[in-house]
Amino acid sequence: MARNEEGSDYIFLLIVATFMVATGSLNTLSAKWVDQLDFDHPVFQTICMFFGEFCCLIVYLIMHFIRKRQWKMRNQFHEGGAVFDLDLEDEPKLPRFNPFIFLPPACCDMLGTSIMYVGLNLTTASSFQMLRGSVIIFTGLLSTAFLRARLRGFKWLGMGLVALGLLVVGLSDIEFDTNPNDDLNAIITGNLLIVIAQIVVAIQMVSEQKFVLEYDVPPLLAVGLEGFFGMIILSFLSLPMYFIHVPATFSKNPDHRLEDIFYAFKQINEKPIVLLALFFVIISIAFFNFAGVTVTKHLSATTRMVLDSVRTFVIWAFSIPLFGENFIPVQLIGFALLTLGMFVYNDLLFGPWFRREILPRIHNERIALCLASFCGLGGLTESDNNRYNRERFERIEEEE
Fold first, then answer.
1. Domain tally for the chain?
2. How far apart are CA 27 and CA 326, in angstroms?
3. Is it the case that residue 201 has pLDDT exceeding 80?
4. Chain segment 281-304, per-residue pLDDT in tens
5. Full-prediction pTM beyond 0.85?
6. Mean pLDDT of the chain
């Protein structure tokens, strides 16, 4: 019986993980599809994305209502229509906190996503997804500055590998682009905008981490609140943006307005397929966040990161036939470096293997202590290290 339950849980988590990769990939591909339809409205697309996140708030409230109703059904005992026993200890309650604490992260999300959508319009979907990996670098740097986190050596190594991978991806876009219709300056600008946007995203992630941990806010509720604030604020800001004119590189609308909300609705009316693409953007971001929260809750945040790497590969694979992107073999190297950097930064596979197999075999105590500190085993004394080595060697001898 227990084995059947474990098997069911495994299948459930496998489905959720697959669903996360699928919806995450669909979100980026749908956003690029919108661009391919000559719908150049990054701010409007961001509003749609926020609406998708706002749907997470609706889902959370529905789930809370269901839990509340189930609790009442379990705990209420009626006699002549009157309740005489009610256990209040496990009553489902909404978290008590000031919802406006998520206003700053929402503003960061609003700015970062808008910039990213502008960048996506100027570059390829695969490069867009790969360059988003730079958020690790900025998150690490900001964590040390604002959260007073101490980054171990392996995290700096991971950040370095990610930076190297980003360099390979960015340069390959320029060097190996053979499409005469592509504007190299636009591609460079788009890539830079995506990387710059990750600074804002990193600020958002650091602030989210602080608030979610401090106030114990359910992630789904946090995402929904950010979506609500972002949707409302950006909807109002889109009106003054109508009167701001920008260079043609950043706007393909007739009057080159920063955001022409009226022309956006006109295009949707004239080309209904745009509405379908936007619908996919909204639905995919909502389900992606829901699946991501589920993966983080039942597995781990590092598992979510690994799945995000898979998503990058899926987007790249589908972008080539769908959007006519060039297959650039060098980008495989960039993707490999990005993935390797993410694995190293999150201490997956390589770090545990090195500590388990390599570190105990190093006889020089100073080198061993130095490498132990680099691998996140700081605080070991020489006697600790000797004991660690001795125990490890004894276990190796027993295995042999």
1. 1
2. 21
3. yes
4. 999 998 888 787 777 666 665 566
5. no
6. 80
Q: What is the structure's pLDDT at 329?
A: 82
Asked if the model's pLDDT at residue 122 lies above 90, the reply is no
Q: How many Cβ atoms are within 10 Å of 377's Cβ, its own excluded?
A: 17
Q: Enumerate the β-bridge partners of residue 257.
A: 245
Tell me what the mean pLDDT of segment 252-266 comes to. Answer: 89
Question: How far does CA 173 lie from the centroid of its chain?
Answer: 23
Find the domain containing 277 and state its range: 9-72+97-141+182-324
Indicate whether 154 belongs to any domain: no
Residue 92 domain-assigned?
no
208 within domain boundaries: yes
pLDDT of residue 240: 92
Alpha carbons 210 and 105: distance in angstroms, whole number: 11
Which one, of 237, 295, 231, lies nearest residue 55 by Cα?
231
Write out the chain in H/E/C secondary structure: CHHHHHHHHHHHHHHHHHHHHHHHHHHHHHHHHHHHCCCCCHHHHHHHHHHHHHHHHHHHHHHHHHHHHHHHHHHCCEECCEECCCCCCCCCCCCCCCHHHHHHHHHHHHHHHHHHHHHHHHCCHHHHHHHHHHHHHHHHHHHHHHCCCCCCHHHHHHHHHHHHHHHHHHHHHHHCCCCCCCCHHHHHHHHHHHHHHHHHHHHHHHHHHHHHHHHCCCHHHHHHHHHHHHHHHHHHHHHHHCCCECCHHHCCCCCCECCCHHHHHHHHHHCHHHHHHHHHHHHHHHHHHHHHHHHHHHCCHHHHHHHHHHHHHHHHHHHHHHHCCCCCCHHHHHHHHHHHHHHHHCCCCHHHHHHHHHHHHCCCHHHHHHHHHHCCCCCCCHHHHHHHHHHHHHHHHHHC
Q: Name which residue leads in pLDDT, 376 or 112.
A: 112
39 in any annotated domain: yes
pLDDT at 7: 61
Confidence class of residue 206 from pLDDT cuts 50, 70 and 90? Answer: confident
Find out whether 173 and 186 touch, Cβ atoms under 8 Å.
Answer: no
Tell me: the pLDDT tens digits for 15-25? 888 888 899 99
Q: What is the predicted pLDDT for the residue at 23? A: 93
